[in-house]
Amino acid sequence: MRKKIYYIILLIVIYSFNSHALESHPTGARSLALSNAFVSVSDTWSTFHNQAGLALIEQFTAAVFYESEFTIDELSLTAGSLILPVNAGTFGLCFSQFGQGSFKENKIGLAFAKPLSEKIYAGIQIDYFSQRFPENSGTFAFATFEAGIIYSPNKKLFLGVHIFNPISGGIETLEGKQKMPVIFRLGGHYEFDEMILISVEIQKDPENPFLIKTGIEFSPVQNFVLRFGVSGKPVNYTAGLGYRFGKVTTDIGFSYHGNLGLTPAISIQFYL
Question: Which among 165, 50, 65 is positioned nearest to 113, based on CA atoms?
Answer without folding.
Answer: 50
